[in-house]
Amino acid sequence: MLKLMHSLASLILTVFVFGGLFIVPAATTPPQNAPLPVPDVMFYGTATIDGVVVTSGTVTAVLPRGGQVSATIAPIQGTDYNYMLAVPLNVFDDPDTAELPVDAMVSNDILYFKINDINARYEDAYDVLVEAFTIPNDAMGETYILDLMIINVDNYVAGDVNVDGRCDVADALLMLHYHQGLASAGENFPPAPGEIYLPLCDIVANGLCDDADALRILRCDVGIPTTYCPPSVPVAASTPSPDMPLVFRLVVDSDQGAGLNVRVIADDTERQLGAASLELGYDVDQLTMESCVQDPLGALDMGVCSASSARLNAVAITGASTGTVLAELTFTPMVTGSVASLVEGLELKVNDAFDLDGQALAWTSAPLQIATFPTNIFLPLILHDQAP
After folding, report:
1. 3-state helix, strand, coil in the chain (%, to 5)
2. Per-residue 3-state assignment (H helix, E strand, C coil) for 155-198
3. Which of 46, 217, 272, 337 is packed most tightly, with the most Cβ within 10 A?
């Protein structure tokens, strides 16, 4: 329909007069691939600095080609909001080949926001601080509520090098990328996507940002004893969208009833797994954990597994392949009974899973498959309820 409208605007008028054919050029022919204006995208919200509502100044949307749209900060009557920002959209026949002006916005463009010329962030649907907003395909005329905020760097914990309010395996993955020369680092706050905020990196205080800092994050996260960990704040597990499934499974085998070996395996179905944080629940009245060995086959770049907490972290900077064994845990049965009855108490919880860029991955469960012992049992991933 859009292409049809464009074509009609540039048609040559054809007039039949007295049976003759005359060609009359259109009076106004728009330039090739001219933008078609569509309803603006509206943003409302409250602008704050360190939790204090801003009473004056401007909120600015920084457009991807250098343009900006600003609005004055002032109370909006009848609401708790103090800014209203209209971002104009355009539609092009082919935005990939068009020479878009600096003030042109199209679907899938990325916006950044500022409060009084200082980079601002907002909490997404999963309570994670983010700095960018991607214009959806169906954004024409839509309204979005974004509470923009500026948070002082002192409020971020050591190790949170991507400055998303969390210190987790995604930060360890980014540290290893930087150590291998695959990511950049700087002191601009907040950092650009995929860049390390260097002042928060040196956890081990050796003057470097390297694999030692990444290892410290993994050890602190699983609770390895005698490990010095910087102060931290509790964070909610990420809740990714369900369109990029990843399957984790447990493989259990028994040495004739004397013990249980449990392997935690990642099956990558669509996206490469860069990092994961998991923990295994089990019935302490039936099983005693004897050991927890991370990355038994040497397929990862870094891994940590704690026998005391049954937690494990895994990082693969080039991606974990299908069937990668993240860890192997060994249990001793405390009661007599079939292996099948003992493994019924096993429960795998996925705290986080990230791709190579540190973006949250979804995970799915596999159907329960019980084989005849002593061959393997395949257990599904069992999801805990997670905070929205």
Report:
1. 10, 35, 50
2. HCCCCCCCCCCCCCHHHHHHHHHHHCCCCCEECCCCCCCCCEEH
3. 217
**Each residue of 66-98: pLDDT tens digit?**
888 999 999 999 999 999 999 988 887 776 666
Return the residue matching tokens 């990328």. 177
Instruction: Quote the tokens at residue 180.
Output: 């291998």
Domain at 157-222: CATH architecture: Orthogonal Bundle (1.10)
For the purposes of burial, counting CB atoms within 10 Å of the CB of 264, is it exposed (0-12), middle (13-18) or buried (19 or more)?
buried
Single pTM value for the model: 0.58
Kindly tell me the sign of the dihedral angle through the C-alpha atoms of 266, 264, 196, 244.
positive
340 in Cβ contact with 323 (< 8 Å): no
Query: What does the domain layout of the chain look like in residue ranges?
Result: 36-150, 157-222, 246-379
Mean pLDDT, rounded, for 193-211: 90
Give the architecture-level CATH label for domain 36-150: Sandwich (2.60)
Q: Over the Cα atoms of the chain, what is R_g?
A: 27
CB-count exposure of residue 19 (10 Å: 0-12, 13-18, 19+): exposed
Tokens of 332: 């001793």
Question: CA 213, 304, 275 angle in degrees (round to 5)?
Answer: 75
Architecture of the domain delimited by 246-379: Sandwich (2.60)
CA distance 217 to 237: 16
pLDDT exceeds 60 at position 18: no
Question: Which two structure tokens, joined as six digits, stand for 325?
Answer: 């064994």
Question: Closest by alpha carbon to 74, among 84, 65, 64, 61?
Answer: 84
